[in-house]
């Protein structure tokens, strides 16, 4: 048993940080004690929410340095926007280098950064500071993925041979904040924002439980990106009305659809395939996560919208728009699925529990910044492949300095 509880500080108080707060209700050995966000009022509100949820006596801090310096804070959950990743980690590392604070761990949301150079910088800073690092990829901890993978490998693969194809998709109707839509701030479009999940999930499913991810290595990558919806003139206009004048898809669009085929070389000599798609142009009840794993005599399939709970509201029920049925909900009437317990279903609960325990025990977590860097390398290779219109060997030449045309505002769909 670990001796102590982990005092957790949050950087960022937005959508994702609040998901983690819900999840910490299912973590027994941690307390959320601090929040820093550039907007003091938002930090105060998130701290109040933490207290209301009874996940810790959280207070708002005036700076990252002061959060890290406080002896009650043992670990930081980094949930700021992608464009602030490097500066956030620099401030943490600098505070520790000045001997002002100590951390048992830092856990960072996906994607680790906007491109390979930034991801390597983030990983280097944390390694030099001697802090344990965890890469927050919730889908690897989603109960359906964990249990589906375990049973598929234990029963199907052990008797009839390894799986050869994994599929994953994450699809919704578009992100909630303007910065996600702007290639230069976010690092790209939906490929950077959501393929980070699916690219890791297919590799994870194809990897035998207990074996290192290096036993299934990316060898060739074929990427494709497209703008299916949001550059249509009427939708570009609507997007600008919703997200503000700086989101101009007539001039600087980002992709709203991406697909990638990754050919992996497995340690047993097999070539296995990961096929993933992500989309901001999917209009269904709400966020849809799906995953499949196929082998010679078996298959598993998961779809988060096959939730087991459905509600029906007739046209007489004219309620307000909300997200109380499912993340990125699109409708309030008719027959609709409800994802009950989203923080558990999407993997946040098991994820936060895992990283808390790893940091408390001083053990390496299942996913580290090295995994985060590898994911960014795959995403950038997919962008390169899409730009060149051909399959690329992994890692391709020039990957370290590559910035997608989408992120430079130079992409012409
Ligand atoms: N695992 C998932 O499925 C998932 C879901 C959503 C978001 N995310 C990731 O979480 C991160 C945050 O996304 P979000 O949806 O919460 O965005 P958001 O815009 O809702 O929230 C971002 C938060 O960061 C704060 N912020 C602004 N500038 C900052 C700075 N310079 N330094 C630190 N914080 C700053 C904002 O005030 C806000 O509180 C992103 O990296 C995103 O990719 C992951």
Supply database-style keywords:
15 strands; binds nicotinamide-adenine-dinucleotide; 36% helix; 13 helices; 6-stranded parallel sheet; alpha/beta; 22% strand; Dihydrodipicolinate Reductase, domain 2; 7-stranded mixed sheet; globular; 413 residues; Rossmann fold
Give the strand order of the largest sheet, numbering strands 1, 2, ... along the chain.
12-11-7-10-9-8-15
Number of helices: 13
Shape: globular
Classify the helix fraction into a percent range.
25-40%
In this entry the ligands are: nicotinamide-adenine-dinucleotide
Rg value:
21 Å
**Largest beta-sheet characterization:** 7 strands, mixed
- Average of per-residue pLDDT values: 97
Spans with pLDDT under 50 lasting ≥5 residues? Answer: none
| Quaternary assembly | single chain
The name of the CATH superfamily of the largest domain reads Dihydrodipicolinate Reductase, domain 2
For the record, the CATH class of the largest domain is: Alpha Beta
Count the beta strands. 15
Distance between the termini: 55 Å
Spell out the helices and strands N to C: EHEHEHEHEHEHEHHHEHEEEEEEHHHE
> What is the structural class?
alpha/beta
Query: CATH topology of the largest domain, what is it called?
Result: Dihydrodipicolinate Reductase, domain 2
Strand composition percent = 15-25%
Specify the CATH architecture of the largest domain. 2-Layer Sandwich
- Summed up, the domain count is 2
Describe the structure.
- The chain starts with 5 loop residues before the first strand and ends in a 20-residue tail after the last strand.
- Strand 5, helix 5 (about 115-130) and strand 6 (about 130-135) form a beta-alpha-beta unit.
- The longest helix is centred in the C-terminal third of the chain and has 20 residues, at about 370-390.
- It has about 425 residues and is an alpha/beta fold.
- The protein has helices at about 15-25, 40-55, 65-70, 85-95, 115-130, 145-160, 180, 185, 190-205, 235-245, 340-345, 350-360, 370-390; strands at about 5-10, 30-35, 60, 75-80, 105-110, 130-135, 165-170, 215-225, 255-265, 270-280, 290-295, 300-305, 310-315, 335, 390-395.
- Helix 1 (about 15-25) packs parallel to helix 2, helix 4 (about 85-95) packs parallel to helix 5 and helix 5 packs antiparallel against helix 13.
- The structure holds nicotinamide-adenine-dinucleotide.
- Nicotinamide-adenine-dinucleotide (NAD) binds near residues 13, 37, 38, 80 and 81.
